[in-house]
Design brief:
By secondary structure, this protein is of the alpha+beta class. A hairpin with a 2-residue loop joins strand 6 and strand 7. The protein starts with a strand and ends with a strand. The N terminus is likely disordered. One of its GO terms (molecular function) is protein dimerization activity.
């Protein structure tokens, strides 16, 4: 079976994605697209109508009566064979060498077959087939000269016609290869971006694992201390009173509950901040004022309003609120250093906490100039999502807005 040809491409891992020569592929590997069905139908329909018009017009005077039925048959075969020119471009062009050379009614099928060979086949094969068409077609004028056309004119027109067909075919081929290259590059960029997102989320979860490990270790140590003290007092002469036993049991129960909750958070979130490794205290909702003051010392204008109480909020929710504001201020400092930043932390709707941060987009900066989900925003979105909330960000009315909605209580 004759096969058509397509490019072979490879990526960094050696898979087929970037131009690297040619490879044989099955002509039936890809079905026609709807657009190809329409274009092939139009071309074949027009050529068939041209053939029918030639047949209906009767036999030309220069063609003998005995040869006219053969001319009509060859022309019909040429028009019919063109339907497979997209899948077998070089093969069809070779099959039409004789019909295109000896049939006046199907003469237009030859240049179009060469065009398809140049567009979809190998360039060298297309040029060779075009030369073969010209070489076999020129003697036709000696057998049946066209009225009013000398052989010299015929010898110039036919090569120019096939040269035009080859040129247009090669231009179409170049356009197709450029589009395929752009699609392959876009696919590789998308794969790299997805890999970067995965790596960022993995790093965030590793950091939360370190954080929750420290918190969980703290809870377990409290359990151990209180249980050890209760065990020591129970075995000593000064036995604890009922109230002391009840208080110790209450502390153990509360810390056991918190330990279970922290363990659940560890399994769900699996991320934390790097400063936990240094033993620094974790940020809370009350630290937002200090964060705004530090930003103001750095020259940033921050309008902070906190309209929610930390009472009843989980520690992870407080930390997430802090990180949302921190990351938003950092992005505003980087991309809009002189723009005032408005920060609002409110009760939101229902049992949720809403964080809204917005700043004006600098004059002359378009949406295309703004960062498209860098590692900071990606990690922040992952943190909010795993904490049971949602995060949206983007440009609205000339201002860059970040909004996070977080649950007040555990899910």
């Amino acid at each position: 079976m004759v096969a058509s040809y397509d490019r072979q491409v490879t990526d960094d891992a050696g898979r087929a994605t970037a131009p690297a020569g040619w490879r044989r592929v099955s002509p039936f590997a890809r079905p026609r697209t709807p657009g190809e069905w329409v274009s092939d139908g139009l071309v074949n329909g027009l050529l068939t109508l041209s053939w029918l018009a030639s047949v209906a017009g009767g036999r030309p005077d220069q063609i003998p009566a005995w040869f006219w039925p053969l001319d009509v048959a060859l022309g019909g075969f040429a028009c019919l064979a063109l339907w497979w020119a997209r899948r077998f471009p070089v093969t069809v062009a070779l099959l039409l060498v004789v019909p295109a050379a000896l049939s006046l009614s199907g003469g237009l099928a030859g240049p179009f077959a060469v065009y398809r060979a140049a567009q979809l086949g190998r360039p060298r094969a297309a040029v060779a087939v075009a030369v073969l068409h010209v070489a076999t077609g020129l003697p036709y004028h000696h057998l049946f000269p066209l009225p009013g056309m000398s052989w010299l004119v015929y010898a110039v027109v036919i090569p120019l016609l096939y040269a035009l067909a080859v040129t247009l075919g090669l231009l179409g081929r170049s356009r197709r290869l450029v589009i395929e290259g752009l699609r392959e590059a876009a696919a590789r960029d998308r794969e790299r971006y997805e890999a970067q997102l995965t790596a960022t989320r993995h790093e965030e979860r590793e950091r939360i694992a370190r954080e929750m490990h420290d918190v969980l270790a703290h809870r377990i140590s409290l359990l151990s201390v209180h249980a050890g003290a209760l065990e020591f007092r129970a075995g000593s002469p000064a036995a604890p009173s009922t109230a002391e036993v009840r208080d110790a049991a209450r502390v153990i129960r509360e810390n056991a509950h918190l330990a279970v909750e922290d363990l659940r958070e560890l399994l769900l979130l699996l991320r934390a901040e790097d400063d936990l490794a240094t033993g620094r205290p974790q940020p809370r909702l009350d630290d937002l004022g200090r964060l705004a003051a530090e930003a103001a010392e750095a020259g940033q204008q921050v309008d902070l309003v906190v309209d929610v109480s930390a009472a009843g909020l989980r520690e992870t929710t407080e930390r997430t609120v802090y990180r949302v504001v921190q990351e938003s201020l950092t992005n505003a400092r980087k991309h809009a250093p002189r723009a005032p930043v408005r920060v609002r932390v409110s009760g939101g709707e229902g049992a949720r906490v809403r964080v809204e941060v917005e700043n004006a987009v600098p004059v002359g900066v378009t949406d295309a100039d703004l960062p498209r989900g860098g590692n900071g925003l990606v990690g922040l979105a992952e943190r909010v999502r795993l904490d049971g909330g949602t995060l949206v960000h983007g440009v609205d009315g000339g201002r860059f807005r970040v909004r996070a909605d977080l649950p007040r209580a555990a899910r």
